[in-house]
């Protein structure tokens, strides 16, 4: 496959360009990049990749589970948060947004190529991983800063409006919440994910 660079970026990044395989580089004009990209102001470099075959892998670290996250911007930002905190696997319900849709890829800021996202039945997955700590984000949960950091387990984030389904919530071993100080009705799913991960992972 071909990685594509426009002339200005390529010339300004000559130390990087010198380490790249020149046979997979194509230099194009800004006008051509504008036609290729979905963005009004696209980045000056594009990468073209084959979609990897996703698969569920056994993990000794915290796994992120998303129950019907439908907003592509939320999913992309959650993938980016996972990458920041060293989480390499996200399990999504079949009703979640497509991790390779343009908005998800853009909002993940390249993290989508480092974080494995797999779509499967969440209840079946939890039954197969019985014994793992399952931390479900819920308004009536224990305040997350009162929990000790965890080395492994599953953090479940629910749908933007409906939250976590009853079937998945029934398998949670701990409900966790973010303490509210101000008057906002709720937190964006991606923002909540970042805060919860920061507390749960801590300095472990």
- What's the architecture of the largest domain in CATH terms? 3-Layer(aba) Sandwich
Output the CATH class name of the largest domain: Alpha Beta
Low-confidence stretches: none
Q: Which fold does the CATH topology of the largest domain refer to?
A: Alpha/beta knot
* Oligomeric form: single chain
Mean pLDDT: 89
Radius of gyration: 19 Å
Per the principal axes of the C-alpha atoms, what is the gross shape?
Answer: elongated
**Main pleated sheet:** 6 strands, parallel
Percent range of helical residues = 25-40%
Question: Whole-Å distance between the termini?
Answer: 39 Å
Q: In CATH, what is the homologous superfamily of the largest domain?
A: SPOUT methyltransferase, trefoil knot domain
Number of strand segments: 9
Taken as a percent bin, the fraction of beta residues is 15-25%
Protein described:
- This protein has 204 residues and is an alpha/beta fold.
- It folds into two domains: 3-47, no CATH class; 62-201, Alpha/beta knot, CATH 3.40.1280.
- Helix content is 30%, strand content 21%.
- The protein has helices spanning 7-12, 14-17, 30-36, 72-84, 102-108, 122-128, 166-169, 189-201, and strands spanning 3-6, 25-28, 45-47, 62-66, 89-92, 116-119, 134-143, 153-157, 174-177.
- Strands 6-5-4-8-7-9 form a six-stranded parallel β-sheet, with helices on one face. A three-stranded mixed β-sheet has the order 2-1-3.
- Helix 4 (72-84) packs parallel to helix 5.
- The longest helix has 13 residues, at 72-84.
- The protein is elongated.
- It starts with a strand and ends with a helix.
- The model has no long low-confidence stretch (mean pLDDT 89).
